[in-house]
Amino acid sequence: MKIISKNPAIVGLFLPLILAVGFVSGVSRLSADEAKKTTLDCGECHTCENPSAENLCLKPCPSLFMLQEHAKHTVTEAPDSMLLKILVNEYGPVRFNHKLHARMSDMDKGCAECHHYSPEGRIPPCGECHGGEANPANLRQPSLKGAYHRQCLSCHREWSHSTACAVCHIPLGAESLTGNVKDPTDIIGIPHPLITEPVKRVYYTPYDRGPMVTFYHKEHIDLFGLRCVDCHQKENCVFCHDLQKPARLKKSQEEVHAICSGCHGTHKCSKCHDKKEKPAFSHADTGWPLSRFHRGADCRACHPTGKRISKLNKECIGCHAGWNQETFAHAVVGLQLDEIHIEIECADCHVDRKFENKPVCSGCHDDGRDPRKNPPGKKI
Amino acid sequence: MGLDRRDFFKIVTAGSASMLAGEVKAGANGGNHRFSDNFGVLVDTAICIGCRKCEWGCEQANSLAFRDKSEYEDKSVFENQRRPVPDKYTVVNTFEKPLDPANPYYLKVQCMHCNHPACVSACIVGALEKKTEGPVTYDPWKCMGCRYCMVACPFQVPAYEYAEPLTPQVRKCGFCYDKLKDGKKPGCVEACPNEALTFGKRGDLLELAHNRIIQNPEKYVSHVYGEYEAGGTSWMYLAGVEFEKTELPVIGSEPIPEITESIQHGIFKAFVPPLALYGLLALAMHTFREKQAEKGDNHE
What we know:
The complex is a heterodimer.
Chain A: H1 2-6, H2 8-27, H3 32-37, H4 63-70, E1 81-84, E2 94-97, H5 98-105, H6 144-160, H7 174-178, E3 201-204, E4 212-215, H8 217-224, H9 228-231, H10 237-241, H11 253-264, E5 273-274, H12 299-302, H13 316-319, E6 335-337, H14 346-349, E7 377-379
Antiparallel strand pairs in A: 1-2, 3-4, 4-5, 6-7
Chain B: H1 5-25, E1 39-44, H2 53-61, E2 91-95, E3 105-109, H3 118-122, E4 128-130, E5 136-138, H4 148-152, E6 159-160, E7 170-171, H5 177-181, H6 187-191, E8 197-201, H7 202-215, E9 235-238, H8 256-267, H9 272-299
Parallel strand pairs in B: 1-9
Antiparallel strand pairs in B: 1-8, 2-3, 4-5, 6-7
């Protein structure tokens, strides 16, 4: 309590929490049986085995619980680039590209990757909980210096294989702080290039009968509206940056196949594997070349299952339910039917209701007229 | 060494008293909760990044060397396993991380400050002392250079100044006892940027260690080295692989001095053996004298 009384910020932070928990515990205290039913692990918030109203033994940062419940923030809210300089004495400050890290953290645990304590409404900066000195009353909580170093180095040393101070710390001295950073080894100072998705990727596999697997990356994003995180999960810097990629990060054959078969669900090797690059997907190959009306449409408008694309009913009404002679606005195809023709059955011009074929006039007119030259209405 | 006859007897008496006290605590092993209030350090090898700033901090705090901090970024020292030497009370070594050889684990070695230190037990002049706060300290003014402590230490920590012909000392980490008394942390702990070294009460550290294991079962093996090893130590370790794969020795939970002391002290147990011996001698003398007296009678 000595620490708490010293630091009003901590009081401000924890007092409402303690009061809130106290209130909750007073109003709806969980019985032992009820507690067993909750999905939450008691140890998430309590340090002792049997917490009581007298001794709640709460952890100061009930991390996981807080995250799941309250951390619903987006990258756009995040600060851009920061200069961490509170602790500057022996070593210079650290330039930290917060937004970049935030964007990449989407591929794993999101903001929670670093901000393990986020009360409702906001994400507090590290220094709000982590003080200048390690808290002797709570050994679980490192000092700000320890927290920074642990947080940064846990990833950075994995792929940079370096723990040299100058990798992160800008050397002390004013010019290096304001001047342009030209040092190519300074990966911190240089802004990370914008991550652009590749159009296609060709993978070379050990499968003899079809070593090449062509993956149209951009197409998958555009067609299915996928976000990076939909496929790239549990990834970190090491995947891209570490040239000496450790064995544990290499995916097993099962894992690699699961990425594609998760949606494509095929056991036919030739579906993906080939001896040459496979052409990109063409809708015409399915026997249904996309007309000018369908070309721009979202796949999911016709294939509502999204992931699984099954063969559809080729009839217009297969998708356009409710279309009939009265309701169909013929003008959308660029021809406003005149008063006479609008009354005629569709099939009188469109033989056998095959709308993809050229309509005929011979059903009524014997003069062999061409619907293009003598349209049954006004062209729009 | 102003040790007169009177003082000698005082020590002997105190020694026998502590021996008797030792008998009381014998068999109480595993009950090392008695050391919960001792100071200790938890070394988390999963957090340690091998920056060797602890070596720098130690050398500063003990005035062993004054090198620039940047010199400690030299990673070539990890090529060979090192051990504490007279001017380096602590060294950082590596051990392999499975599946990720490019990022090995690091292990800081120093005096473990055992709860039942074998060196203290072996020291015949009381130069090594187990302080109530936890540290095992060394007094060069009492040391006579027998180096029994070096033989006794199961962790092979004490080093000897063989290069000093006139005033050689045994050298080992003293847990920065002077700093500890002032409520400060040891030099190495202060220097650790990653706070892989956590300083605190031994009981709290054990709780912290077990908490970390429970919360990160994929990161740690369920073993706190030093909780029971050699009857418990003040410095304790967490690791991601079995400790058999590290340089730390496999040691049982019995305090090391228990075996030797039980033999040596057993001889003097409750003064029965000495009394028996003297009794035997007295009997022999008595019978011998009687016989001699008889002979003398005959002569006269």
